[in-house]
Write a structure and sequence with these properties.
This protein is mainly α. The chain has helices at residues 3-27, 30-58, 65-87, 93-109, 124-158, 169-202, 210-230, 237-260. The model has no long low-confidence stretch (mean pLDDT 79).
């Protein structure tokens, strides 16, 4: 089976899974939810096989925006399944799986690289650094979805109502906290590995490019969230809004930094 066939199969499975997650949420259909989780697991497996196949064909999987978005979507699917397994709730499934499906469809419109990377970039350490970074982005996306659900439920409760089919605030708060902490750990490890690789190749661990600076700012926002929740003992909307602002920083890191330095060493979009 070619990588193109695998990609199309994975795209179809993602779409069906997203559809069933949305149906199960609106119609409260438990059987649809079970099928949605199973299809998502199959989609993630096929997606991983697609990336692995391309890696064997061309050496490494990160050549262009197509591959980068595909890896981010894969990490998003894997982390969501872990979240569902850990917490037993599918509350953010109708948010995350349509996003994953749209990302996969978007990658299908992007040009794919068909030549190996430069030998300088064919480094296991570099690929590990990039993989962990996009896994961190995926974890922060899950945290954002949980924070958004928290804010919707909180607003409904303050109006003496109950947001439809959303779990208690404590559940969404714990889910957002877990995802944010996973993201903090992954981003810290990714920055350290990237610095080690840069020292080996460039002779300096840090070059102060916009993406690096924004990554530190993002890590600082989520670090403030961790301190506020676990040391200062904040609770409620303030914590959720910190996660939201952290996600805005993620978008600026991925998109805005490339606009500021389109020919930089960390540029992906241009």
């Amino acid at each position: 089976m070619t990588s193109v066939t695998l990609f199309r199969t994975g795209t179809l499975l993602y779409g069906l899974s997203a559809y069933l997650y949305v149906v199960s949420w609106f119609a409260h259909h438990p059987q649809s939810r079970k099928w949605a989780t199973g299809l998502l697991l199959c989609a993630v497996t096929v997606h991983a096989l697609t990336i692995t196949r391309r890696m064997f064909e061309y050496g490494y999987p990160f050549f262009s925006l197509h591959e980068v978005v595909a890896v981010y979507a894969l990490a998003l699917g894997v982390l969501y399944l872990l979240t569902e397994w850990r917490f037993g709730y599918t509350l953010i499934g109708p948010m995350i799986t349509p996003l994953g499906s749209l990302l996969i469809l978007f990658t299908g419109l992007l040009p794919r690289a068909h030549v190996p990377l430069l030998s300088l970039l064919q480094s296991t350490l570099l690929i590990t650094h990039m993989s962990i970074f996009f896994a961190a982005y995926a974890a922060f996306t899950l945290a954002f979805a949980a924070a958004l659900a928290y804010l919707l439920q909180d607003r409904a409760l303050r109006r003496k109502k109950l947001a439809w089919r959303l779990p208690p605030l404590t559940v969404m708060g714990d889910l957002g906290s877990w995802a944010a902490i996973v993201g903090i750990v992954l981003m810290t490890v990714a920055i350290v590995l990237g610095s080690v690789w840069a020292m080996q190749v460039w002779g300096t661990p840090w070059v102060w490019e916009p993406k690096q600076v924004m990554s530190l700012i993002t890590l600082g926002i989520y670090g403030l969230y961790f301190y506020a929740r676990h040391v200062a003992r904040w609770s409620g909307r303030r914590l959720a809004w910190l996660i939201v602002w952290g996600f805005v920083s993620i978008l600026l890191t991925f998109i805005g930094a490339d606009l500021l330095a389109p020919t930089g060493l960390h540029s992906i979009l241009f």
